[in-house]
Write a structure and sequence with these properties.
With 469 residues, the chain is an alpha+beta fold. It contains 13 helices and 20 strands. The longest helix has 21 residues. The chain is 30% helix and 24% strand.
């Protein structure tokens, strides 16, 4: 990109020639190779990506996985918020540079000073060029973004000793719409042996998928403060996270006695998220397999994850499985909060819907061909704030929100699909209170409500055979 900016206002690359190639053609070739080697992502339009920041020979392929899918949105993403940890200079709060553009061997990218001025009013946010002098965490993302996108600006945010709330507020102010991407820079574990790193990185990956910002610390990710702020905001904004690739330097460089962990993740808006068609079919097949196995053997199948499964099936997700026969409910069981990989959750909930829902007798083999099946993949339940029942009712979005009500040790859950039969929000709440065991007019100061969204897809009757996972 050609920029009309004075050379002394452009931040020169600090890591070129060490962390990545200094020559334009060589840098472009290495980045393209990393993007080609990156794994395919089932997330077509991430709002947030998480990528590592090591030298390209170590973490380039994993970073390529995080960034490769962005090319399809090259004309729509106009701004990238870069947020990552400070490694070289200790300071409190958040920092940015005074530069008007950042350069790499692939050219210069303008800094969005309009967005940065919105951040300057935050206590703890400052211009601090010295913190960026030999800092790599944000710079190494730029060459990937330059190859994937066209004509974008950046909002660089370096995180020092800052609380989750400050990072979250900064990201909230520059969140924008579909024109804005947030790129979080973080490696995972540091300097453990190969097996210990795999165990810790696997736990960190699960915390990221569960948006558990309070479960990640410096031992699990050097960018834990940047991650915490992004995950906290993602939870309140109803995003869902998918782990795309988790490896370490033992996989990419060979040495396994002292490794660094790397991970690629994509976070998308849950309300508009859609699993690939092949993954939907695989889940429906697995659910039908669980029903047939249960009808024939009288127990739940023992399922485990094999190798080579798509990332969307191994991601930790909460699901419900609903069964209908002749247009009437025949079973519905699910998980409100994610606690295991989606594929295993669907298999278990399908079996429970068919054989452990106490409202109905267990399914028989003869019934299987007449069963219609629907899977709902839930987002993380978000607590609602309201002043009385009327306020709660006004906040609900028909056909969009699922709802959880709990009070006095009781809980009721409605899927968004229930709106089809109960289209009024006040009736929706009354019916859910009955389901939870409360009187329709029940209200108390301790009642809590949570809402979520769900991706729904189904399978018609007449297809009884399913494939074993």
């Amino acid at each position: 990109m050609s920029l009309d900016i004075a050379p002394d206002r452009i931040r020169a690359p600090r890591m070129a020639g060490s962390w990545y190639p200094a020559g334009r053609e060589e840098c472009a070739a290495v980045v393209e190779a990393c993007l080609r080697a990156g794994r395919a992502s089932p997330v077509p339009e991430p709002k947030v990506v998480v990528a590592p920041h090591a030298g390209f020979s170590y973490s380039g392929e994993i970073a390529g996985t995080a960034f490769k899918g962005l090319a399809a949105r090259a004309g729509r993403i106009r701004r990238v918020v870069l947020v990552g940890p400070a490694h070289r200079v200790a300071f409190k709060g958040l920092a940015t540079t005074g530069s008007d553009a950042w350069a790499t061997p692939l050219g210069a990218v303008p800094v969005d000073w309009v967005a940065l001025r919105a951040l300057m009013a935050l206590p703890g946010f400052a211009v601090m060029d010295r913190a960026f002098e030999n800092e790599h965490s944000l710079e190494v993302h730029l060459p990937f973004l330059q190859r994937a996108l066209d004509g974008f600006s950046i909002v660089p945010i370096l995180v020092g000793d800052a609380g989750t709330g400050l990072v979250r507020e900064a990201l909230e102010r520059v969140w924008g719409g579909p024109e804005t991407l947030v790129s979080v820079s973080s490696d995972l574990s540091h300097f453990l042996d190969y097996d210990a790193a795999r165990a810790l990185d696997g736990a960190t990956a699960r915390h990221i998928e569960l948006l558990a910002h309070d479960r990640i610390d410096a031992s699990g990710a050097c960018g834990h403060r940047a991650l915490a702020g992004a995950l906290s905001l993602a939870r309140s904004r109803d995003l869902r996270a998918t782990g795309l690739d988790t490896r370490n330097s033992g996989d990419t460089s060979g040495r396994r006695d002292r490794v660094v962990g790397y991970g690629a993740f994509a976070l998308e808006h849950a309300a508009s998220a859609r699993l690939p068609d092949d993954d939907r079919r695989r889940l429906l097949d697995a659910a039908r397999y669980a029903l047939r196995f249960g009808a024939e053997h009288g127990r739940e199948p023992r399922a485990s994850l094999g190798g080579g499964l798509p990332a969307s099936l191994t991601a930790h997700r909460a699901s419900f499985v609903s069964l209908e026969a002749g247009g009437k409910l025949r079973g519905c069981v699910g998980s409100v909060v994610a606690h295991r990989p989606l594929l295993l959750d669907v298999i278990s909930n399908a079996w429970k819907a068919g054989f452990a829902d106490k409202r109905f007798p267990p399914l028989t083999v003869e019934e299987l061909s007449g069963i219609e099946l629907e899977v709902s993949v839930l987002s993380f339940p978000r607590p609602m704030r309201f002043d009385g029942e009327g306020d709660l009712v006004r906040q609900l979005r028909p056909d969009i929100d699922g709802l959880v009500l709990q009070d006095a040790g009781r809980r009721g859950v409605f899927l968004p699909s229930v709106w089809a039969g109960v289209p009024r929000a006040d009736a929706f709440v009354r019916h859910l209170k009955r389901k939870a065991g409360f009187a329709p007019d029940h209200w108390s100061g301790t009642l809590r409500a949570f809402r979520y969204t769900a991706e729904r897809f189904g399978d018609p009757a007449g297809r009884p055979e399913g494939r074993a996972p």
